[in-house]
Specification:
Blueprint (H helix, E strand, L loop, with lengths): L9 H50 L58 E3 L18 E8 L16 E10 L2 E10 L7
Antiparallel strand pairs: 1-2, 2-3, 3-4
């Protein structure tokens, strides 16, 4: 009595299902990793774009001894009040009293003013949200600090910064982006 059996036994079928399930799980894990890293790449690109825009905004401001509204802003030769210096307001790190990035009447008007600035979400200089919901998950911080650069001392005899290292950090959406720039003072003042 000879019979030809065709097909799989129950054990063979079960093992096949287990092997295919493990392979499918591995492929799904690969797809998940690819999809999540693709989203991270977009978030990182957005974070760097926000950091670049903020760095350009900061570096585009004047770097003067006196507040730009000071009567002697164009002639001051040092960061002090009096003959040869400022009429009333010496620029220091951080905003002067009442200055904010979003104020039309009293806005940031010097590189120094951005020191310590922080912004949740992405906002323009009027305070309006930019980019809708896509950019609300980011936090931007700015620091400016004296920095010795290429033979230029970090500070002058009056301890006024001559060179500032501007650092912009954008975090959120599982990414972090940091850009730095250097701003130097030139002539007696730099409008």
């Amino acid at each position: 009595m000879c019979t030809n059996h065709r097909g799989f036994t129950l054990i063979e079928a079960t093992l096949s299902i287990v092997i295919v399930s493990i392979a499918a799980a591995g492929v799904m894990l690969l797809f998940q990793k690819t999809a999540s890293s693709s989203a991270d790449a977009l978030a990182l690109k957005q974070a760097y774009a926000v950091a670049q825009a903020m760095l350009e905004e900061v570096e585009g401001e004047p770097f003067t001894y006196c507040d730009p509204r000071d009567a002697n802003v164009k002639t001051a030769t040092g960061a002090f009040v009096g003959a040869g210096g400022c009429a009333a307001t010496v620029e220091g790190l951080g905003p002067e009293l009442g200055e904010t990035r979003y104020s039309a009447a009293n806005p940031f008007n010097n590189v120094n003013d951005y020191n310590g600035f922080a912004m949740v979400g992405v906002r323009d200089i009027t305070g309006a949200v930019v980019g809708g919901a896509a950019l609300t998950g980011y936090t931007t911080t700015v620091t400016t600090q004296p920095f010795a650069f290429g033979g230029i001392a970090a500070q002058d005899a009056h301890f006024a910064p001559q060179v500032l290292l501007v650092t912009v950090t954008v975090t959120g959406n599982n990414v972090a982006a940091t850009l730095q720039g250097i701003r130097t003072r030139y002539a007696p003042t730099s409008p």
